[in-house]
């Protein structure tokens, strides 16, 4: 099924937004180290934009999304307000989690965004629960569950996949395999080349996809969502991708220059740009206009975050949904 041109343009805008947000967040983080204004660690999603955008374009506002510690891209792709996200990074009252969560804990229940998780693999059983509520209430909602390849070595991954398959729960597990779990290469932690082999024992459909090809991600996730809505159960998708930055801002780069250069050549944004240019969906001038608009939006978001007030200590006990 062809994607409408208008939708493709929106997908590119979202990828620009994610990339720009991460670059602006890195600026704020470096400033914050001196000023004490940045809340918690920063795990950049730069380089993985195709996975979040391709997957989230397959679901609606009411569908669930459970993120990980590297979750800014998921939030933006699901429609979260970048001004509120930027304010959350600085721990401000106007933040998407009212300044209580920081980078790894951004929530927006109105958009089905059930937040990130600082625990490796911590979101996997939460997505299972969200999918169970949809099945129990007999809605057509599905749950997208994003996690890294490091989380796939946690026991909770197998427990959740087994139960989801047994009960045919509407959950799509998306492993963003960026080859490095913090500073541990996948070759030191996986005895097999692909995660999908682990799904066979649970009778769960599984597929490997090029995570730097937004259109390829969209195609496989769209099929998985269709299956889930029809009551056919979960799907495991392994998206091979790569993060451009070190694990977080306080760990120095440890990967080889040759490896970094090779993956930068596979950058998902220029890849989508070429596709849209070749098919005359957009011109270079139109792309630049979108980039400029996103840049302006991010400047405003950073200003909003800086100008916002810190939360009152008395609000720390308040429920996010109150």
Topology (SSEs and partners):
Elements: H1 5-35, H2 49-56, E1 64-66, H3 72-77, H4 82-89, H5 124-136, E2 143-148, H6 155-167, E3 171-177, E4 180-181, E5 184-185, E6 206-210, H7 214-229, E7 235-240, H8 257-264, H9 268-278, H10 284-307
Helix pairs in contact: 1-2, 1-9, 1-10, 2-7, 4-10
Give a summary of the structure in a few sentences.
This protein has 322 residues and is α/β, with parallel strands linked by helices. The chain contains ten helices and seven strands. The strands form two sheets. The protein has a five-stranded parallel beta sheet, sandwiched between helices. A two-stranded antiparallel ribbon has the order 4-5.
Architecture overview:
It is a single chain. The chain has a single domain (5-308), classed as Thiamin diphosphate (ThDP)-binding fold, Pyr/PP domains (Rossmann fold, 3-Layer(aba) Sandwich), CATH 3.40.50. Helices cover 43% and strands 10% of the residues. The protein contains ten helices and seven strands. A five-stranded parallel β-sheet has the order 1-2-3-7-6, with helices on both faces. Strands 4-5 form a two-stranded antiparallel sheet. Strand 2, helix 6 (155-167) and strand 3 form a beta-alpha-beta unit. The longest helix is centred in the first third of the chain and has 31 residues, at 5-35. The protein starts with a helix and ends in a 15-residue tail after the last helix. The mean pLDDT is 93.
């Amino acid at each position: 099924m062809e994607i409408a041109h208008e939708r493709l343009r929106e997908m590119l805008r979202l990828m620009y937004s994610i990339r720009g947000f991460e670059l602006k967040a890195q600026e704020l983080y470096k400033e914050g180290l001196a000023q004490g204004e940045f809340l918690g660690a920063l795990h950049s999603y730069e380089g993985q934009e195709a996975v979040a955008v391709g997957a989230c374009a397959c679901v609606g506002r009411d569908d669930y999304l459970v993120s990980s510690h590297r979750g800014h891209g998921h939030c933006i792709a699901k429609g979260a307000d970048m001004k509120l996200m930027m304010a959350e990074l600085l721990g401000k009252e106007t933040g998407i989690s009212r300044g209580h969560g920081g980078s790894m804990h951004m929530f927006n229940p109105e958009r089905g965004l059930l937040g990130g998780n600082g625990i490796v693999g911590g979101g996997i059983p939460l997505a299972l629960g969200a999918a169970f509520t949809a099945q129990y209430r007999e809605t057509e909602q599905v749950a997208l569950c994003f996690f890294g390849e490091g989380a796939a070595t946690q026991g909770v991954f197998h427990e959740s996949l087994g139960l989801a398959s047994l009960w045919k729960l509407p959950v799509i597990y998306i492993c963003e395999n960026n080859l490095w779990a913090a500073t541990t290469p996948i070759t030191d932690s996986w005895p097999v080349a692909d995660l999908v082999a682990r799904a066979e024992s649970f009778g769960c459909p599984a597929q490997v996809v090029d995570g730097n090809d937004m259109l390829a991600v969209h195609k496989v996730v769209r099929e998985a969502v269709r299956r889930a809505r029809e009551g056919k159960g979960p799907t495991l998708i392994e998206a091979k991708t790569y993060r451009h930055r070190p694990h977080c801002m306080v760990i120095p780069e440890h990967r080889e220059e040759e490896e970094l250069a090779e993956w930068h050549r596979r950058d998902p944004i220029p890849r989508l740009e070429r596709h849209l240019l070749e098919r005359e969906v957009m011109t270079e001038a139109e792309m630049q206009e979108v980039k400029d608009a996103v840049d302006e939006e991010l400047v405003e978001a950073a200003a909003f975050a800086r100008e916002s007030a810190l939360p009152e200590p008395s609000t720390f006990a308040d429920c996010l949904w109150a």
